Amino acid sequence: MLSIKNLKAKIGDKEILKGINLEVKAGEIHAIMGPNGAGKSTLSAVLAGRPDYEITEGTVTLDGKNLLEMSPEDRAREGVFLAFQYPVEIPGVSTTNFLKTAVNEKRKYLGLEPMEATDFLKMMREKMEQVEMDKSLTSRSLNEGFSGGEKKRNEVFQMAMLQPKLSILDETDSGLDIDALRLVSNGVNKLRSKDNAFVVITHYQRLLDYIVPDFVHVLYKGRIVKSGDKELAKELEAKGYDWIKQEVEAAN
Amino acid sequence: MAEELDIIDQVTQQEYKYGFTTNIEMDTAPKGLSEDIVRFISAKKNEPEWMLEWRLKAYKHWLTMDEPEWQNFKYPKINYQDIIFYAAPKEKIKLNSLNEVDPELLKTFEKLGISLTEQKRLTGVAVDAVFDSVSIATTFKDQLKEKGVIFCSISEAMHEHPELVKKYMGSVVPTTDNYFAALNSAVFSDGSFVYIPKGVRCPMELSTYFRINAENTGQFERTLIIADDDSYVSYLEGCTAPMRDEHQLHAAIVELIAHDNAEIKYSTVQNWYPGDKEGKGGIYNFVTKRGMCAGVKSKISWTQVETGSAITWKYPSCILKGDYSVGEFFSVAVTNNRQVADTGTKMIHIGKNTRSRIVSKGISAGKSHNTYRGLVKVNKKAEKARNHTQCDSMLIGDRSGAHTFPYIEINNHTAQVEHEASTSKIGEDQIFYCNQRGIGTEEAIGLIVNGFCREVLNQLPMEFAVEAQKLLAVSLEGSVG
Lengths: 252, 481
Description:
The complex is a heterodimer.
Chain A: E1 2-11, E2 14-24, E3 29-33, H1 40-48, E4 54-62, E5 65-66, H2 72-78, E6 80-83, E7 90-94, H3 95-109, H4 117-130, H5 136-139, E8 141-142, H6 148-162, E9 166-170, H7 178-191, E10 197-201, E11 215-220, E12 223-228, H8 230-239, H9 242-251
Chain B: H1 2-12, E1 26-28, H2 35-44, H3 49-63, E2 87-89, H4 103-111, E3 125-131, E4 134-138, H5 141-146, E5 150-153, H6 154-160, H7 162-168, H8 179-187, E6 192-196, E7 205-211, E8 222-227, E9 232-240, E10 247-250, E11 253-258, E12 263-270, E13 282-293, E14 299-306, E15 311-314, E16 317-320, E17 326-335, E18 340-349, E19 355-364, E20 369-378, E21 386-395, E22 401-410, E23 416-425, H9 428-436, H10 441-452, H11 454-457, H12 462-475
Parallel strand pairs in B: 3-7, 6-8, 7-9, 8-11, 9-12, 10-13, 11-13, 12-14, 13-15, 13-16, 14-17, 15-18, 16-18, 17-19, 18-20, 19-21, 20-22, 21-23
Antiparallel strand pairs in B: 1-2, 3-4, 5-6
């Protein structure tokens, strides 16, 4: 589904991604771990198309389509979803109104008619139940005054509504207590299917107890330096990142 | 950064949709202003002698006044000898029905989305259409008459209801009030007149649609609305003008009078031509709007959505004279490119237990400047007056300015006055967040700005709220930072 080949990106003069290669197939969950400053968040931003970054080399395709040539909104409409580490607040715009716009913009892109209001509200109810989203949150202004946990749950709820092919979770666990973490993870697990895929970016192994990955990759200094299965995450948790750093330095 | 500027450029280059002109034979006054011109206008309108006297008095006073200079912007000195003060479509015969209105004019209003023909009128809204200096048509007159509601052009009111005009015109905005008010009083051409009798709830929205068409002309209309005891009226005004390279002056006066327990809701969607992106052309919108809450428990609400004009300069105000009277001001002012807005309100508390509420939302994009200026004044005898002011500014891009000048004068220690203010910027983060959900940048700005203004837009009657929302999005297309 997602194919990243030799991806290099910089911000200003600073090269952050130095040749990423990653293949993600439908139905898979990939975890990307790594120390601070390794380029984890840059990778998610580049995939979603944040304008601050310049791609200097490489390709990214989603089901064969060149993502890098698309605007951020077209990537989203093609099925890329980024669960933000820090979801923004939009005062005066309800989550309902926001999602209605988003869903219908996607439908327009796909050549479909806008959803009927009743159908839309029905879908809202179903998805809210599915991801255990508090009903009262949808009538409030988007993320305004939400707690950290509520914001992350709202991200998962939006994911449920937009039904993306590829979901990227950018440090979704940061700032969550254990109960919120469980709720968010349950939501994600319910959305898993053989047709979609997840890239879970995290600093800690903790999240991966709940969202169990098929593959774990270690990102360090802008490259994937080690890949393995979920046991690799446990090893990192036990030993930290230093041994990886040493391995990399030794190889150089 | 480069991309950011691109987006700003796109947004700020949105075309003005109403910039067309109408080719029609016009009857115009010679350029310039003099006593003769004042007499000319009065004669054209076949006015009674007392009206001419009133105009001449205002004119003589105007001659003694200086153009104000305290505002927060500069504009080139206006040459009053270079303006045409009266322009009207040539009437071949006296109109008896809409069928006799020049089809060119009907087409013009159709194009603006205002249908004056019997079959296609917006249901539930009576319209008075003013084209340059004259009122073209007023719809639903007969239905309103049954309820005793008078809705006609002010020229007509002078003849049909001279006692009301004499009593109220100039009672809220005196001819000597300010420079532009004096000018208007001398040369005003037409406008709308509304009288709601005692105990009547006006059965439909009343609306005036102003259109400037002729070149080099100024538009000087007056609106006078009187709500007698226990009555209610909701009134809307809309306005557009063609795209012209020179600035055109629009100096209007609106006077509202609410008697005991009466309520007037006055809504404006102002979309005069704003000029091009370099600031060439556009309307100078210098308007005096004031409401008098004369009676006990009377209420006046101003709602304005200001998106057009090169310069918008006005302070729709309330004089809260009646005990327990209420004044409200809800405003959205959007400026883009080189536009300027210096707007706000004055709430003058005179009666006891009077209350006022101000909600102002300013949005500045491009190289524009947006100023909120407001006065809350509590007089000595205004026991227990209360005011709440909320004043929010939003900046789009990094070349625009937002300014706030709140004035508060309290002469009674029982008053409670609160002022809240905030300034925010549409962030790239907000835009990107919307983009990532499949919402394009233009839609995203529309969504964010409409969210920001929601409190004010909620005050507008339904059909106008939708129009206003679209207008906001269009005025700001491409202005992200």
